[in-house]
């Protein structure tokens, strides 16, 4: 999806993929982002977590995922996500996001943005998918899609795996949904995933730019000015940039606004993921097949799915 360095500004596009992972991000971050996008005439693609917010349980990644403690420390996670969020599912009960925030979730479509399914239990999927049975994977997929239908009154047309965590079995269960596309991976142009010897026919659109919660942990980008300079030059063609309602919609909203203003002043435009999917599928014979594997990324603990 990324064009060679030096591509002209007229060809620079950034599709914004918005992940709502937590209660606070859904309740507070969504309204803030809708206001921000409305004032700039930007449409985005939002993905929602509908089940229990168990963000506090993620603290155990310190012991199970290489680099997680450093990421949390360097990105100042407590200030990014808020103190109560860091305790949900441990010292505080895990609140049901879809049940409590249906109005905020529904408002995204009412504002003209695309919507899709992120998941049911974000932490559970992110940390446990590879050890789950097919039945448990299907239960989580079904519950998330059922809640989406309850809130929006229609089935979802796309989904995006929590934490870019996907495997052969999750792709197979997801394929039963007849989705237009998914966004489960990082890096590269749209592709058809191959896993476990099977080629899946649901188009995959990866996120291509580093996320802000990753770059905040980079030693060479210690200030907001450095972050802005990096992101201003990051789009080289058509990119997909994942943002988080908890971060760009709350704690780092002023910085994200400045990044958007820099992009718009440079002529960057903002297609939706659905528009990118229809563009790619219009030339279906040119879409490559890539093996779905795992990789590591600077500033992110653990691994993410990628297309080879």
Output the keywords:
disordered N terminus; 14 helices; alpha/beta; three-stranded parallel sheet; 308 residues; single chain; TIM Barrel
What does this entry show, briefly?
The protein is of the alpha/beta class. The chain has helices at 23-40, 61-64, 68-74, 77-81, 97-100, 102-110, 122-128, 134-152, 168-175, 212-215, 224-233, 247-251, 253-265, 273-281; strands spanning 13-20, 45-49, 114-119, 158-159, 181-182, 192-195, 198-199, 203-204, 238-244, 289-291, 293-297, 300-306.
Tell me what you see in this structure:
Helices cover 40% and strands 17% of the residues. It is built from 14 helices and 12 strands. It has a 4-stranded parallel beta sheet. Strands 4-5-8 form a 3-stranded parallel beta sheet. A 3-stranded mixed beta sheet has the order 7-6-10, with no helix packed on it. Strand 1, helix 1 and strand 2 form a beta-alpha-beta unit. Helix 8 (134-152) packs across helix 9 and helix 11 packs parallel to helix 13 (253-265).
CATH class: Alpha Beta
- What CATH calls the topology is TIM Barrel
The poorly predicted ranges are 2-9, 61-69, 71-75
Give average pLDDT, whole number: 90
Strand order of the largest sheet: 3-2-1-9
Strand-pairing-aware structural class: alpha/beta
Task: Return the domain count.
Answer: 1
Helix and strand pattern: EHEHHHHHEHHEHEEEEHHEHHHEEE
Helix content: 25-40%
Please give the radius of gyration in angstroms: 18 Å
- Name of the CATH superfamily: Glycoside hydrolase/deacetylase
Total strands: the figure is 12
Provide a count of the helices: 14
- Give me the CATH architecture, please: Alpha-Beta Barrel
- Strand % is 15-25%
Main β-sheet: number of strands, strand sense, barrel status?
A: 4 strands, parallel
Shape: globular
Query: For the terminal residues, how far apart are their CA atoms?
Result: 14 Å
């Amino acid at each position: 999806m990324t064009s060679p360095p030096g591509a002209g500004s007229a060809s620079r596009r950034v599709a914004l993929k918005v992940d709502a992972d937590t209660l606070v991000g859904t309740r507070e971050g969504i309204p803030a982002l809708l206001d921000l996008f409305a004032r700039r005439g930007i449409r985005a693609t939002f993905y929602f977590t509908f089940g229990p917010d168990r963000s506090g349980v993620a603290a155990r990644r310190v012991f199970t995922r290489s680099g997680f403690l450093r990421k949390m420390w360097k990105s100042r996670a407590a200030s990014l996500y808020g103190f109560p969020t860091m305790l949900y599912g441990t010292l505080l009960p895990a609140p049901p996001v879809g049940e409590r925030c249906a109005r905020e979730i529904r408002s995204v479509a009412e504002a003209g943005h695309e919507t899709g399914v992120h998941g049911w239990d974000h932490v559970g999927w992110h940390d446990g998918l590879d050890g789950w049975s097919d039945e448990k994977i299907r239960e989580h997929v079904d519950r998330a899609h059922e809640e989406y239908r309850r809130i929006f009154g229609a089935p979802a047309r796309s989904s995006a795996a929590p934490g870019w965590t996907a495997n052969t079995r999750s792709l197979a269960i997801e394929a039963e949904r007849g989705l237009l596309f998914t966004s489960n991976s990082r890096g590269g142009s749209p592709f058809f995933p191959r896993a476990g010897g099977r080629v899946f026919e649901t188009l995959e659109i990866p996120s291509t730019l580093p996320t802000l919660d990753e770059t905040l942990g980079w030693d060479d980008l210690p200030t907001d000015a450095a972050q802005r300079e990096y992101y201003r030059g990051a789009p080289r063609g058509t990119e997909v940039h994942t943002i988080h309602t908890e971060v760009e919609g709350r704690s780092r909203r002023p910085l994200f606004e400045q990044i958007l203003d820099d992009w718009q002043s440079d002529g960057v435009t903002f297609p939706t993921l659905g528009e990118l999917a229809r563009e790619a599928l219009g030339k279906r014979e040119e879409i490559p097949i890539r093996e779905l594997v795992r990789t590591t990324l600077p500033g992110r603990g653990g691994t993410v799915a990628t297309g080879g």
